[in-house]
Please model this.
Amino acid sequence: MLKKPFVIFYLFIWITSCTAQKTVYNNPPLVLTENELSDGLGSFKTDDLPSVTPKIGLSLIDDATPIMAKMFKIALNDIEQNIVKNEVGTYFAAGRRYTDKVYTRDIAFAGILALNTIFPEEMKKSLMITREVRGKLGHKVSAEHVIPEINVPWEVISDHEPDVMAQYKTNSYTRRTDDVVWIWAVDDLFEKNPDIADWKWFYTTGKENFERFYDPWFDPKDGLFRAQPTFQDIASNGGYPKGMTIADCVLLKGTSTNCMYYKAMLAMANAAKKNNLNDEAKNWLVRAEKLKKAILKELVLPDGTLTYFKDRYGKVINNQHNLGTAFAVLFDIVEGKAAKKAIDNYPMTEFGTPLIHPFLEGGKGDHNAASWPFCDTFFLQAKEKADKKDHTGYNAAVLARTMGTKLSEKRNKDWGGFGSFHEKVVLPSGLISGSGQQLWTSAAFINICLRANLVNLKTIN
Model:
């Protein structure tokens, strides 16, 4: 009979071995082994990947597979390459392609996925800067981005949107109607890192943002917020039915963004409590519950799945959005059997989860016929919550292949070639596309490592 110390030792070995095996995947043509990634387009081995040395002292546990350990360092290096220091401040950029532009959604999603855990100080600075930039820009827009149906003090400062970006390092608000995502991100950051939390700033800024930027888009007729589905660039890249105008794209009610509004209201209630504003906390909870009921009434399709959006005229389309489905499950808007019903039949391909299912008519465009790895990662976390199964192996494999098993010949090499985490995947071809060293893709890979308990957080410096 084994003595207790030996039992504990062998139990530890067995647990760490199982942990490492979570990131091995074998479902041909997509296969991720301890030292190789292969799919229908090609393959690469651990030794093919570049060797990098990130500044942050963070590593995986010794039992992690060699290919995961090397990609982990690449992910950290990609993230560090996105730290911008300029006259605006210190913050995270979105990826190699996007230079020093300030993108709230990229920063916020990357933070929620992983950076709130491993780069908390940089995330706090980044999120605060998004509020400063958004506050200064306000409702100054380019001419085509005035939405007269929304009662705010629009001010046209240029005929051309690039002029707005050049002056403020971000777009007109009309292109960012999913701006509320920052509230979810800050709440997550402060809960994970109470030593850097500034709950007074958070609540004051959040309340001001709701009054100034968000409440004007609320439609009391159905209890939903008018807003683009999150991160779906308006009137471009195929993410909307043909013929939709800028106004059409932002006056609709996106499921994903309404789910984020629900999460933001819960976060505001939490922040109010932290500031001993108990009556205000109750008011936020009441608002959240009303919004949840509106989502369930207006945005759930007859088969139990969730619509991509309800258009400005009240028509609910049958297409779904992986983030809309994911957020409804992650935020407990749909629970139990309803959550399984909502997510069970959403496709999971060898190249990732389609951003929109089925594709919108025409089947083209980076925001339509494509898979985005950060979206895959949110979706698979929701899938795990709904079906109680582990999907980290599949998640790791679809993220790993964005290193570039077969790269698009059209991509500018300056955006990052083979050996960094890329932005998106074209469907159905599976070709890797977009920027290299993409912040939220790299953060999504770190998220997988955290979920698989592979990260040795004690090594962080």
